[in-house]
Amino acid sequence: MKAKVFSIQGEEVKDITLDDSVFAAEVSDGSIYYAVNNELANRRVGTACTKTRGEVNYSNAKPWRQKGTGNARSGDKKSPVWVGGGTIFGPKPRDYSYKLPKKMKRLAMKSLLSMKVKENSLKVVEDFSVESGKTKDLVNVLKNLVNQERTLIILKDDDVMLRRAGKNIPWVKINSYNRLSAKELLYGKNVLLLETAAGNLNEFYGKE
Q1: Which positions ≥6 away from 199 have C-beta within 8 Å?
Q2: Quick one: DSSP state of residue 204?
Q3: Contact 33, 102 (CB under 8 A)
Q4: Residue ranges of the domains in the chain?
Q5: Given CA atoms 31, 34, 39, 42 in this order, what sign does their dihedral have?
Q6: Angle 4-6-8 (CA atoms, 0-180°, nearest 5)?
Q7: CATH fold of 2-45+100-206
Q8: pLDDT digits (tens, 9 = 90+) for 51-74
Q9: What pTM did the predictor assign?
Q10: How far apart are CA 58 and CA 79, in angstroms?
Q11: What is the pLDDT of residues 70-88, one digit of tens each?
């Protein structure tokens, strides 16, 4: 398939060929769901922790004798039924991360890229960088290409200065072509794909 390439001034300058198997594939909603869930699970810290009755710092003594007081029988104040007692089945530190099958992840990325093309949300842009690393210089470039909506910029490699420039723009996310985020692709209102990164994606996801 053919796609327009835009300059940083927002003008159409030429056409580029995109691999149909990557940018015009059938959208798999299931693979997208699993890929996004996997990313969210892998980001979880998993440090929530509660104390059981065996870990609460209380006396082991009975608060009153077993019989004859008129109160319900009680073993100790560490019981979960007491205020300040232990917690039953509370969370403990754990690792929520897991691996997604490689084929499913590839299918999800191709589905997301194809979906953005169908929605006219993906725009191929001539390679550019922000040598100064200043936020205002990147904003001046973006205002010619997109509105101030959630935008994902896909790079050909890890451009440190461009990442620095975009760090303080809350509606801009930056990924390199080989480290795409399913979540950012799904929720991005606009996707700016650098020209070289488009070619890299053709090779990276086009081959099976």
Answers
A1: 16
A2: H
A3: no
A4: 2-45+100-206, 50-90
A5: negative
A6: 170
A7: Ribosomal Protein L4; Chain: A; (3.40.1370)
A8: 999 999 988 899 999 999 999 999
A9: 0.83
A10: 10
A11: 999 999 989 999 988 999 9
